[in-house]
Design brief:
The complex is a heterodimer of chains A (148) and B (152).
Chain A: E1 7-12, E2 15-20, E3 25-29, E4 34-35, E5 43-49, E6 52-58, E7 73-77, E8 84-88, E9 90-93, E10 101-103, E11 118-124, E12 127-132, H1 134-142
Parallel strand pairs in A: 2-12, 6-8
Antiparallel strand pairs in A: 1-2, 1-9, 3-7, 4-5, 5-6, 7-8, 10-11, 11-12
Chain B: E1 10-17, E2 20-25, E3 29-33, E4 48-54, E5 57-62, H1 64-67, E6 80-84, E7 96-100, E8 105-109, E9 127-133, E10 136-141, H2 143-150
Parallel strand pairs in B: 5-7
Antiparallel strand pairs in B: 1-2, 1-8, 3-6, 4-5, 6-7, 9-10
The chains are: A mainly beta (148), B mainly beta (152).
Chain lengths: 148, 152
């Protein structure tokens, strides 16, 4: 069973974000993925599972689509109707005792129909790392399109 | 001329912003802090400047100028963040911040201060009214309208 207190830290561009392990995710190495050779489009790689293939997107620190080749792994979220991924510059499963997550609600209208992208924050001194709301993150990624 | 009758005193804070001044009850403010690193919240409203770490919480910080349709201050240097208590009916951790351009100043109101005329108020649902203090117009935010914008 996933430990709700365990978080995956992902480095996207210059920013760190946390993903709760309750989300259900798989980390894939680049060499196990089919990379998009075309410079066009939002998808940077696909994960092929049996007859399905799941897209992965490259995002910058502001979560906007970016395309660069300096990545080594992708994190695929278990989502409906299909898994969706994002490539990360760095991933690290944080020790359980290390992270204390506070609830956090961004103000204003949520950017996805599944709600706000963030549902918590890890505050250490002046440093704040936002915690993804996995459903909304998956919804955002799925909305980037070009899945096949 | 008849002097205006002074009523019970209400302690308020004069909050300097870019091109305007807000007036808020002192009791609504939990703390005034220096603007440290603001962490951006991707895909947030243009008036949400980011979040600041305060105690163990991530507190969203708002530009009131941007809420009124003006540009947010380009620099936070010399500014302060007022941390407000959560709004009525919200969870006890839902503090929010407003960026001020300088240290807020205390004001004691006794009901003798004249109201700002309708025509002098900005055309915004986020402003409920205003008071003239020492010839300066001070704007009183409409907390209900703010609550609707913050938590739609």
């Amino acid at each position: 069973m996933a430990d709700p207190n365990q978080y995956l830290r992902m480095q996207l561009g210059g920013a760190s974000y946390l993903l709760p392990s309750t989300a259900g995710f798989t980390i894939e190495q680049r060499e196990n993925l089919i990379t998009n050779k075309s410079p066009e489009g939002n998808v940077v790689a696909w994960r092929s599972v049996r007859s399905s293939r799941f897209p992965a997107y490259c995002l910058d620190a502001n979560l906007r689509v970016a395309r660069h080749q300096q990545w080594h792994r992708a994190v695929f979220l278990d989502a409906k109707p299909q898994a969706v991924g994002l490539v990360a510059d760095e991933v690290q499963l944080l020790p359980r005792a290390e992270t204390v997550i506070s609830p956090f609600t961004p103000l204003g209208l949520p950017p996805t129909h599944a709600g706000h992208l963030f549902s918590g924050a890890w505050v250490t001194g002046n440093r704040v790392i936002l915690v993804f709301n996995p459903g909304a993150l998956a919804s955002y990624l799925q909305g980037l399109g070009e899945s096949t | 001329m008849k002097a205006r009758r002074a009523g019970p005193r209400l302690h308020a804070l004069e909050v300097p912003l870019e091109g305007m001044t807000l007036l808020v009850p002192s009791a609504s403010v939990a703390e005034v802090v220096n603007p440290s690193n603001l962490t951006a919240v991707p895909f947030s409203e243009p008036w949400l400047l980011g979040v600041v770490g305060w105690r163990t919480l991530a507190v969203p910080v708002v530009s009131f100028e941007a809420l009124l349709g003006a540009p947010a201050p380009a620099s936070h240097a010399g500014g302060k963040i007022l941390i407000f208590y959560p709004m009525s009916g919200r969870k006890d951790w839902e503090f929010y911040g407003v960026l001020a351009t300088a240290e807020p100043r205390p004001q004691a109101l006794d009901g003798s201060q004249p109201a700002v005329s309708e025509g002098e108020l900005p055309d915004s649902s986020y402003i409920a009214s205003g008071l003239k203090i020492a010839n300066q117009s001070m704007l009183i935010p409409d907390l209900q309208a703010l609550q609707k914008a913050f938590y739609p």
